[in-house]
Amino acid sequence: MQIKPRQHLLDIWQAIARHSFDGGEWTWGKRGGESSVADAERLLCILYPATEIPAFRLDDPDTTQDDVQRVMKRAGGRLEIPANLVTATAEFMRRHTDEKRPTFAGGHYFVSGDQDRDLTQEQRDLGVVDSYSMSITLCLATLGFLKIYESKTRRGDVLETIQEVRTATSNRLTAAMVSLLRSFTINVFDTDSSQGRTLCELLGQGRLSQRHVLRRFQDRFEALRASIVESFVLGVDVEEGLKDPNQLFECGWGWSIVRDAPEVPTDEPIGPQPQGVANPVPYLYFTVVALDGIQDLFSDRTLTLGLLNPEQQRLAEALRLRWEITQQFWSGIARFGGDRWPLEDIPWRTTGQKLESEYFSLSVAAILVHDLMRRRATDDDLTRTVSVMERLAERGRITSRMTQDDPMVRLHHPGVTLPLQGSESVGPPMQWIMSDFSAQLLKRTIQLCTLSRNLGSHDRLLRLAEDIFDHLWRRRIGDGEGTGLWDNVHAAYPETPAYEGQVSWSVTERVTEVMVQVHQMYKQPPIRSSELTVLARALLSESTHLLGNEQMEPAPASEGNRGMELRSIEVKLRRARKLVDEQPGTACSLTLDVLGQLDALARAREAAAQGV
């Protein structure tokens, strides 16, 4: 199925407008307000495309395009849509702010690990890295939206709401950044510990001894280890452990603010900083989520519109340091050894939680993709990563058939379960369920496709992306209030339970995000083929020579259109010369057309000469 980002986004927006607007007013539904993650994901399904794609802009009513206005008619008329979105955002900020500070509750996304005990309200109110990261993306989109819309409306009530939303959004953005800083952790452990043995087995892949792995680890991460120690203070125990080259370590984000995390000094009015409860252990899933949100702080749009105040810029630099260090570390782990990457040994085994799944292989691949986008990727890195993506799609039964009683169905429903270590200190053990494997795989495939400038790899990735998208498109909800949204896993995997009527905003938001990425991919110049460039230049040379020859021939008296045709040929050749470096295929097509016209003129002249 070909991915058509504009049409598919219009379909998604129409479904969201039908589901979430009633007479122009935003309706949260029965679960609205319970989870800041789900509510942010729902708003981002509209605000993210509206602020990233010019054709979907809603902040300037004079530029709203007809097809966009048509699918969003449930949200109001051309002038009402942006005002209603501002109102919805204001409600979100009020719902997820208590008397003292912005809140980042995981809510119903948290699951009890004890079948006999439900989670306490205190546990459901705990902040989660998903919410911190999603809030960064939402707040930046909102601030950019308000900056444009404020200059386009004269309604006093709307301008007053805009001021309220801007203040609340800025505070929430700062609080989210502070919380992400306090959720970052580095776990140092000995090679003989349980974690150390797991990591050595993972990196050694059964071929290297523990001592050999440690020596390679020391060599590979010596510079990074020194950079971490010199760059920021982590706490006495961690800092001393990092200085010992015989210690292994991992870095990344925990599931929430880690236990005993020091407060981040700031003058911004974000209220008291909550105590952390999470064990200081990095999670691959939450690390990927954090990296996704942090990179929005450095986007061209954020910098161009000047969305960050000086204090937020300071916090952003601190996050950027952790962002770069984490990418370097996990990229090095994924490609450890050289001959055969640990990433290629699917499925990945986590050291902190002792879990094994294709989802964790995808998480490591996602961090590697982040790193490849940050630096200049080699063709070998890209080719091997493409193969990993293809294998994950096959193992996940996206591009291969499901077998009888196939255990892979659990990857999609109910999903991969993460125990949230440290949560048992405030109640029953908590869990987080990840059921968005297909959407995440599509997202990383499109990111790689955008990055790749190798024709072979690009073609493989595009075919893979279309296969995954076809799979996901079949999983849209077919009836009820969520029609056209996600996630009806039963439609793709009949072995799973029938759809129960709940919209998955996490999958819906990720598919929406992918449509924005596909749009940006198509906006890039096409990959230039050196072979086509050589051919185009040869065709241009021949065409130019034959045109010059034709222009020296006397025009027959009976052919008054000859001059117009020659001028048309000159225009095409000028266009071909302009495109030969960027679009050699188009240049070839134009010059072949010119050669056909020139040959027709020559044959007509020969026929006229024979007739005489």
DSSP helix fraction: 55-70%
Secondary structure tally, helices:
21
Low-pLDDT segments: none
Q: What is the makeup of the main sheet?
A: 3 strands, antiparallel
Structural class: mainly alpha
Radius of gyration: 28 Å
How far the N terminus sits from the C terminus, by CA atoms, comes to 58 Å
Order of helices and strands: HEEHHHEHHHEHHHEHHHEEHHEEHHHHHH
Report the count of strand segments.
Answer: 9
What is the global morphology?
Answer: globular
Percent strand: 5-15%
Strand order across the largest sheet: 3-9-8
Round the mean pLDDT to the nearest integer and report it: 91
SSE arrangement:
Elements: H1 5-20, E1 21-22, E2 25-26, H2 36-52, H3 66-71, H4 80-95, E3 110-112, H5 121-124, H6 129-149, H7 156-183, E4 184-190, H8 194-204, H9 210-231, H10 236-243, E5 247-253, H11 284-295, H12 300-305, H13 310-334, E6 348-349, E7 356-357, H14 358-374, H15 379-395, E8 416-420, E9 430-434, H16 437-451, H17 455-474, H18 505-523, H19 530-551, H20 562-579, H21 584-611
Antiparallel strand pairs: 1-2, 3-9, 4-5, 6-7, 8-9
Could you explain how this protein is built, in words?
The protein is mainly alpha-helical and 612 residues long. The chain has helices spanning 5-20, 36-52, 66-71, 80-95, 121-124, 129-149, 156-183, 194-204, 210-231, 236-243, 284-295, 300-305, 310-334, 358-374, 379-395, 437-451, 455-474, 505-523, 530-551, 562-579, 584-611; strands at residues 21-22, 25-26, 110-112, 184-190, 247-253, 348-349, 356-357, 416-420, 430-434. It is built from 21 helices and nine strands. Helix 8 crosses helix 9 (210-231) and helix 11 (284-295) packs across helix 13.
